[in-house]
Amino acid sequence: MRRLLGVIGCLAVAGCSTGPAPGPKQAPVATATSAPASAAPSVTLQEAASVLEDYVKRNNAANKAKSAKLLAEYEGGSSFAIDKAGYASSGKGDEYLPFSYTKPAYTVPAAKEGRWFLITAKGKIGSHVAMVPTYLLFAHNGMSWRQLYAPNVFNDQPADELPELAASGPAAAVAQSDATGLLMSPTAFAKSYAAHLAGKGTGSRFAPDGLTATARSNRIKMKQWAKLTETVRPATTYPSYALRTADGGALAFTTVERNRRYDVHQGPEHNYVFQEQGPLKGRKFYTFMKSTELIQVVAHIPPKTDDPGRVKVIGSHSGVISGSGR
Prior knowledge:
The protein is of the alpha+beta class. The protein has helices at 45-65, 68-71, 77-89, 186-197, 210-222; strands at residues 12-16, 29-30, 100-107, 116-125, 128-129, 134-140, 145-149, 152-153, 226-234, 241-244, 250-264, 271-275, 288-301, 312-325.
């Protein structure tokens, strides 16, 4: 399930009451970072284009039926967990219009890195084309292709300032623990960013981004309504990926898990909290509310030589996958 108009994050909001609640097909364009001349790509551009075409067809069918069974045939990892929860929480009036992608650019790692590839494209609904692109990451599970990551680039991120993946042969994948020439390894990024998103540790290694700004604003806003207990950690159940960029840095894809519990301040005003998205949507909680959210992020990890060097998160795809309260 694709949301082509990206949302910065899933928010908890609060209030009070006087009592209890009553795209056309395009020719493929290769974009890949350099790898040894002997390395072969893990998939041909023709096959990758066919995977995208099949994905759009299946996704539109699943969206129309709001069918998790159909969704499971072409999505996996955190994408499936997020979008399955989205189907379960969508209302009868929610409509998913048919979509496509325009001018997809394909980045294919060498075969030795496993069978996966990246597509950068702009979503299209009717005649409307998104201002910023979406990253679509597909991996082969031994039997078929699955879409594992689908973060939308933030609306305030200039498209011409996205990390460049130079076109010159099979792409160079970066192992999660590999910090060679980088400000930090992809694994270190996932751990540090999780702490940063929770408002802990130092944020000096990260450029400002919409996710952390919204999280910080939400913590401040909710203080008058409820006590927040929050933990954010790398969601290691799901695979992460990274590619070398033209500047010697890396484009990293990872998933973090955010758990939040709001204990509502008790008083004559009958304070309550509620969730704008996810399985708790539409319900008010006067005692407590807790939720688990998965957040896919894509970030540019700069090379060590950058001064000042700061990691920049440039896009996300997220959703509350479970929750409870009373």
